[in-house]
Design goal:
heterodimer, A: about 500 residues, alpha+beta, PmbA/TldD fold, eight-stranded mixed beta sheet, five-stranded mixed beta barrel, 24 strands, about 40% strand, B: about 450 residues, six-stranded antiparallel beta sheet, 10 helices, 17 strands
């Protein structure tokens, strides 16, 4: 492999590149879906290729190909150089990368049971069992159970001397029950352990077994049917307790995205948008209440944003984002870290925080979340409910929307419960809540402790042009928010 | 680009070697590039060449009927890798449980050739893309605002072949430009699509977005509530996408979770609304067959306000007596089911200018952002306005307003219709693999439920 990477780096420099890197990536994926007792999808896919990124005349170029031959490496490298020269036609300043990155080493996700060592028979059997258990409730119209496995082997080398080999393994699984009331034209859905088909983590088959999909399926089926006759979530301003998976998505959307420094600097403006967390707010803005501490930690075991080095060869690290409610950190790349330092001065770190991630060989790395998490507080969940006189508990996301600076949001959840006099009460359906990001986090007055905390996976984060899908992690425990507008459906 | 002959050779080698009862080979190639700009400079500039082979192996279940199906894919076109992929598909199929609903892969059918390939687009150079993006950047710099956006050009091939004798090959090109031009307090958007990159007028796109940006500076807050709205085609396109997600496919109808369920033949929206899918219409982005090689049929989804039908692939059609695929399969395996990708919303008899002139008080919306279904059965959607939102009073745009959140049933909105524009725009469709042709709409009682700070 090194012969191939050296060839690209040498050729790029001969052709005028002041910086070059190459990634050789092979990705294996396996997806299995059982629907109403039938295996509707079972596929294995392999995608491999090379991506060469260069700086020539102070501007970026990137080219990629699925063909792994010396001739194609030469072609792709030359094309990347040509593209960079075209980029330079409309530059206003040269790319500045900051301190060189020269790491060497290997990294592998720690797994107990390699998911590729588990037979298809065992995987299908587990899904069929869970699917049958979902359909124990007669009102379940659609029962789905699914598994997803992912292995990415990648080699990174750059012209500064870095040479890194990584193997990332992910396992995901979940169940979903849909109940339909034809008379009233109503549909309700329940999922486990997370929304949108699955939870996913950097771990092996042991993670799937720990989910106990068959054991949880009867409850999920029953809840989907029960939601059809549940009362709708009332409208009003009330106290809200968010369950951990909904809170994970709240963190993703209202903290994870606005701290991406490329969004802050406008380089995602045409697609995903920008950010309200502009540089003058760095270390000078109250993002949330004093209870709120957020971190971006690429070293967190099991997180979907966990790796050895990012796709610029920068080592995985833990970066404070919000400390005691004060905004103090961004997700950065080598280039944007330099730009931030030029604006805010030496209090900003000189080196990248290691958040550049590419969706495969055919995409450039862009700033992505690692594992952006809300640190645990000190409440037990039962005590938190007992301490809440009047409010609503909401869990598991059903719909999500936020503006292009990440301020105004509205979320809907699969299920909710009324809280009255410190006790969980009746089930509520069609629950929604809305707010403005800093006000919402400013209203957080209690977070459950580490015994309720775990890292959840978001394997479907879209960003960039051409589009890229990132796998991100979010640690969360239930938390309480005061004076939140809930219930907007009419 | 591999070309028809080379692809045919590859598919024939795989099909000849397969021991499955039925085998399908789908090959997609992509040779494209994208020049992205922000802050009025090119900051990301990329190119990609890829060819993916997907093999679907079908084993008949002699015991209980139905079939066991395995799918495997690779982008390694070396013969040993292709044969390994075939073996993987067969191995998966052998371990599968039988699917009693699967009838058969589609047989050979007559495919109508459509012209969708342009040499100028396929051969577009990095320098030419840089000039296109640069034209918008320079225009923005001159206006004292900043431009961001992306200009992409691509040549693609799709081939579907199977052991029943089906062979369908199509090649196409795509050229797409979109831009957001921003000032400190405002933004404007414009986009265009064509098969021929020479059709894209970059300066016109830049001028449209820049004018919108300059006009929407220093927006004022506006109380949420129910308003008359005038929606540009960029915003109207979201109606098509959300109705597709929530109900234009056969699977959601069969499962009773489509807003069309139980309503076929009934009037569900204003009689002026007609929406259909037509993969062969040259006014869109024509593609003659689907991902199973079945010819595209025009399907009326809503005609004169009446729910007419949904789209089918062969698997969904096999579940209903007397139904046939309409040519709307997505790549296998696909539990989500068929989807319409070439959507048309019928034009009307008015114009954006007339809509504004006839509005006493309302909101003019350029486009929507981050829309999501809240209640799929009523197509209740929430989302934000973006990149140019204005108050209209006494027949004129009076001032820009801060962006608003809406929570609104799109079906109700289409029942509160006040007008449809004659003119329509061709816009890149869902997933970037197709196109939609959409007009502007005016409607009353559109429900805004929140506001943001910009």
């Amino acid at each position: 492999m090194k012969t191939l990477t050296d060839r690209a780096l040498d050729l790029a420099q001969v052709q005028g590149a002041s910086y070059a890197d190459i990634r050789v990536v092979r990705r294996l994926t396996q997806n299995i879906t059982v629907k109403n007792g039938i295996v509707e999808a079972l596929s294995d896919d392999e995608s491999q290729g090379i991506g060469v990124r260069v700086v020539v005349d102070g501007a970026w170029g990137f080219a990629s190909s699925s063909v792994l031959s010396p001739e194609q490496v030469d072609h792709v490298t030359a094309l990347a150089v040509q593209i960079a020269r075209a980029s330079a036609l409309f530059k206003v300043r040269d790319v500045r990368m900051g301190p060189p990155v020269r790491h060497t080493g290997t990294y592998r996700t720690a797994v107990q049971i390699d998911p590729w060592s588990v037979s298809l028979d065992d995987k299908i059997s587990l899904l069929l069992q869970a699917n049958q258990a979902l359909r124990m409730s007669p009102g379940v119209r659609v029962a789905s159970s699914s598994l997803a496995f992912w292995r990415e082997e990648k080699t990174f080398a750059n012209s500064e001397g870095a040479y890194l080999e990584q193997t990332i393994v992910e396992s995901g699984g979940g169940i979903e029950a849909i109940a339909v009331d034809k008379q009233r034209g109503e549909v309700q859905k329940r999922s486990y352990p997370n929304s949108f088909a699955r939870d996913q983590r950097t771990e092996g088959w042991e993670g799937i077994l720990a989910m106990d999909l068959p054991g949880n399926a009867p409850r999920i089926g029953e809840e989907a049917v029960a939601l059809l006759s549940a009362d709708p979530c009332p409208s009003g301003v009330t106290t809200l307790i968010l369950g951990p998976t909904q809170l994970a998505l709240q963190i993703h959307e209202s903290c994870g995205h606005p701290i991406e420094l490329d969004r802050v600097f406008g380089t995602e403006a045409s697609y995903a948008g920008t950010s309200f967390l502009t540089p003058e707010k760095y270390r000078a803005f109250r993002y949330g209440s004093e209870a709120v501490n957020l971190t971006a930690d690429a070293t967190l075991p099991g997180g979907l944003g966990t790796f050895g080095w990012d796709d610029e060869g920068v080592a995985a690290q833990r970066v404070p984002i919000v400390r005691d409610g004060l905004f103090c950190g961004y997700l950065t790349s080598r280039e944007t870290a330099q730009q931030l330092r030029e604006i805010v001065g030496p209090e900003a770190p000189e080196a990248s925080g290691g958040a550049m991630r590419a969706d495969g060989w055919n995409r450039i790395p862009i700033i992505r979340m690692t594992n952006v998490s809300l640190e645990p507080g000190d409440w037990l969940f039962d005590d938190l409910v007992a301490d809440t006189d009047d409010g609503i508990y909401m869990e598991l996301n059903k719909s999500w929307s936020i503006d292009d600076k990440r301020l105004n949001f509205q979320f809907g959840t699969e299920i909710a419960y009324e809280i009255k006099g410190g006790r969980m009460g009746r089930m509520l359906k069609n629950a929604t809540y809305t707010g403005m990001t800093p006000r919402f986090w400013g209203s957080c007055d209690a977070i459950c402790n580490a015994s309720h905390w775990r890292v959840w996976g978001t394997p479907n984060c879209g960003k960039g042009q051409p589009g890229q899908t990132a796998h991100t992690g979010h640690g969360a425990a239930p938390a309480r928010f005061r004076n939140v507008q809930v219930g907007l459906l009419k | 680009m591999l070309g028809r002959q080379r692809i045919k050779q590859i598919t024939e080698r795989i099909l000849a070697r397969s021991t499955a009862d039925q085998t399908e080979v789908m090959i997609q190639t992509y040779d494209g590039a994208l020049t992205r700009f922000a802050n009025s400079v090119i900051h990301q500039n990329v190119a990609e060449t890829d060819s993916t082979v997907s093999i679907r192996a079908v084993l008949r279940d002699p015991a209980g009927g139905g079939a066991k199906i395995g799918v495997a894919g690779t982008n390694n076109l070396d013969e040993p890798a292709l044969f390994r992929t075939l073996e993987a598909a067969l191995a998966i199929a052998r371990r599968q449980s039988p699917n009693p609903d699967f009838k058969s892969l589609p047989g050979p059918q007559s495919i109508k050739e459509v012209a969708a390939y342009c040499d100028a687009t396929a051969g577009c150079t990095p320098e030419a893309r840089a000039r296109g993006a640069g034209a918008i950047c320079l225009l923005a710099r001159d206006a004292g605002v900043v431009a961001s956006g992306a200009l992409s050009t691509a040549a693609v091939e799709l081939t579907v072949s199977n052991t029943l004798g089906a062979f369908a090959y199509h090649r196409a090109t795509q050229a797409d430009i979109n831009t957001v031009i921003m000032s400190d307090t405002s933004a404007g958007y414009a986009a265009a699509f064509s098969l021929d990159v020479r059709d894209l007028d970059f300066e016109a796109i830049g001028r449209e977005a820049a004018a919108k940006c300059l006009k929407s500076q220093n927006p004022k807050p506006l109380e949420p509530g129910e308003y008359t709205v005038i929606l540009e085609p960029y915003a109207v396109q979201d109606f098509l996408h959300m109705m597709t997600w929530t109900g234009f496919g056969a699977v959601s109808l069969q499962e009773g979770r489509s807003f069309m369920a139980g309503k076929i033949g009934q009037q569900i929206v204003d009689t002026r609304v007609s929406i259909w899918d037509d993969g062969l219409n040259p006014d869109g982005m024509p593609i003659p067959f689907d991902f199973e090689g079945v010819p595209k049929q025009r399907v009326d989804l809503i005609r004169d306000g009446v729910a007419r039908g949904v789209v089918y692939d062969s698997y969904a059609a096999g579940k209903e007596e007397g139904k046939a695929s309409t040519g709307h399969a997505l790549p296998a395996p696909n539990p989500m089911g068929p989807m319409p990708l070439n959507l048309f919303f019928a034009g009307g008899d008015t114009s954006l200018e007339e809509m504004i002139r006839g509005t006493e008080r309302g909101i003019y919306v350029t486009r929507f952002h981050y829309t999501r279904p809240v209640d799929p059965m009523r197509v209740v959607i929430t989302g934000m306005t973006r990149d140019g939102t204005f108050l209209v009073e006494q027949g004129e745009i009076t001032y820009p307003v801060r962006n608003l959140r809406f929570t609104q049933s799109y079906l109700d909105a289409l029942n509160h219709l006040d007008g449809i524009s004659r003119a329509s725009r061709l816009l890149t469709g869902m997933g970037g693999i197709a196109c939609d042709r959409v007009p502007a709409l005016k409607m009353h009682q559109f429900r805004f439920t929140g506001a943001t700070e910009f």
